Amino acid sequence: MAEPLSTDEIDQQLNELPGWEYKDDKLTKEFSFDNFRDAMSFITRLSYEAEEQVHHPEIFNVYNTVEISLSTHDAGGKVTEKDIALAKTIESLHNN
């Protein structure tokens, strides 16, 4: 079972994840794209990375906006290192 991070540990990690927030026991961020196709392309690329990490985010999409929420089910729906790692991967996908 994954160990939840403390609020202080999460806050420290958020310093390296611009735009990400910690609320309701989840890491969340909203991404905007030029159009629907770019948003869906991002989601598709993300799906491969998430599957590789065996960690699956909550994804909400409307037109050119993608909202992602991360928590770890094995840790009772709390934030763990797995969420931090996937958030960093998501940032690298968005910045490429």
Automatic annotation (TrEMBL):
The keyword Lyase applies. Signal peptide: none annotated. Pfam families: Pterin_4a (PF01329). It is an enzyme of class 4 (lyase). Keywords: Lyase. GO terms for molecular function: 4-alpha-hydroxytetrahydrobiopterin dehydratase activity. Belongs to the pterin-4-alpha-carbinolamine dehydratase family. HAMAP family: Pterin_4_alpha (MF_00434). This is Putative pterin-4-alpha-carbinolamine dehydratase. It comes from Fodinibius sediminis.
